[in-house]
Amino acid sequence: MQMSAQQIAVFLLSISIMLFAAKFFGEILNKLKQPAIVGEMLAGIILGPTIFGYLIPGFSETFFPQSGLIKIALDGITTLAVVMLLLVSGLEVDLSMVIKQGRAAITTSVLGIIIPFVIGFAAAYYSPDLFHAPDNNRIFLFALFTGTALSISALPVIAKTLVDLNIFKTPVGLTIISAAMFNDVIGWLIFSIILSMMDVSHSIFNFMQTSALIFAFIVILFFVGRKIINRILPYLQTKISYPGGVLNFIFILGFLGAAFTEYIGVHAIFGAFLVGIAIGDSVHLKEHTREVVQQFVNNIFAPLFFVSIGLRVNFITNFDPVLTIVVLILSFLGKIIGCTFGAKITGFSKREALMIGFGMNSRGAMEIILGILALQVGLISEAFFVALVSMALLTSLTSGPVINALLKDKKTKQLFNFLSPKNIIFTDILSKDELIYHLIEHTPNKINKKEVLSKVMEREEAIPTGIANYLAIPHARVNIDKPIIICAVNKIGLPFSAFDETLSRIIFLLLTPENKNELQLQLLADISKKFQSREKVEQLFELDTPEKFYSALKKL
Q: Whole-prediction pTM value?
């Protein structure tokens, strides 16, 4: 059966309405310093049966029907959207970063999974009625789902929060993002087991066969496929039209991986996610290519998926305040306790550990995707689904403000308490290492400069300290009583591996006391906030004296 011309017109109007509402509310949330996906989910709730379905029932029935060809077409688009969203999420996973962060990231992530999982599983298993479990014959699977849903973080939301707070490249920020990456990988491995047990796709393979096929797929993809991808990418980027050829290659592989996992009985999203990791881990994938893919998916397809969440259920009639409060309490306690404890035992201070705990507490796409699948096969009720979405919204909204509050101590931790014109140097040095050595030579004679150089270079080799908008902040915690900040202005620019791939032309050497962990975080954030406007930063290059530079910097 084909869609009529009128149905096609309505379908296209529906897509336009969804994209407009997603962008409108996403921008509002961005202005409020909150993740855009929160606005996109709110847009769906407003367009769906909760608001418009009640106030303007004819609108919802026309543009977002619950059955028929338009509904099938919209479901097809949102399925494609979620597969592409997980492909992009996989591209963001940097396995080398997880390995570099090592014990802290893995310990934080593992405890941040185990503790909320155990709490969620036990609560759902022993109190299924409280969670509105619809099928008493699947209580064990229901409890597995609940534990998993409460234990997984939202990598895209976390990354956005850290960038907004200017702490992405700090030890705390890198630990949070690395732990979230590891959390994603483990989370989707658990999800694959649950999805196969839920029999979402009615696969011809049994559970053991599906598990063996998944294991074989992972081994082949990461030990053979990754090497092949590394060989093919340089050819595509030099011999075929760029970036079209590479984008085509990425999406073909993503859809093939998605098709395979769907065929063997695990949802397509898992295959797309794994392929994304394999491609994103290639040293030959250009940052520009990654950015093009992310912009395309995050601005077109991802919003369609997040809006579709609100179109599925009525969030007022299915809202159970007791269940929602219970889910919120369990999710906050489990994740924050688990991640905070993991960070604390690996050497972070109490305040830093709390920042990591709240940073990892953001939830989002993963819980909702699994929730939609569970809702479709009757594993969970609509009331529980509403509670999960509410939890994702609230945890995403609270992480940023709480971390920001933990960062604040403005009287003692502002940049200009430790920087003066005499510590600003104009230089044309052409080597990054030579510049760092030159900056250290300008520190007071009483400090051990050899030890400082060793620690700064060790930090630089582990994770480059380029930020963005021409800024770099090589830093270290050393044996001193109070912070030391030396600034170099280099009009040529040096490669500090900044996010935006620009050469760093303003370089701050930041040294802080070993026993004051939070001090370094605050000063890093304070410096980074000065460099949010590329245009304003470029005006600094016209200045020719330390006094003029210092005065202009204070006004940024």
A: 0.68
Beta-carbon neighbour count of residue 409 at 10 Å?
12
Structure tokens at 170: 């700090």
Tokens of residue 191, six digits: 């999800």
* Of 324, 335, 322, nearest in space to 386 by CA: 324
Do residues 180 and 105 touch, judged by C-beta distance below 8 A?
no
Residue 470 parent element (H or E): none
187 vs 184: CA distance, rounded Å: 5
Q: Which pLDDT tens digit goes with each residue over 118-175?
A: 999 999 999 999 999 887 788 998 999 899 889 888 776 787 677 667 677 677 887 8
Burial of 463 (0-12, 13-18, 19+ CB in 10 A): middle
Pairing of strands 484-494, 424-426: parallel
CB 162 within 8 A of CB 359: yes
Asked if residues 356 and 175 have their Cβ atoms less than 8 Å apart, the reply is: yes
- Contact between 189 and 151 under an 8 Å Cβ cutoff? The reply is no
Q: Measured between alpha carbons, how far is 421 from 233 in angstroms, rounded to an integer?
A: 48
Which residues on adjacent β-strands are paired with residue 511? 476, 484
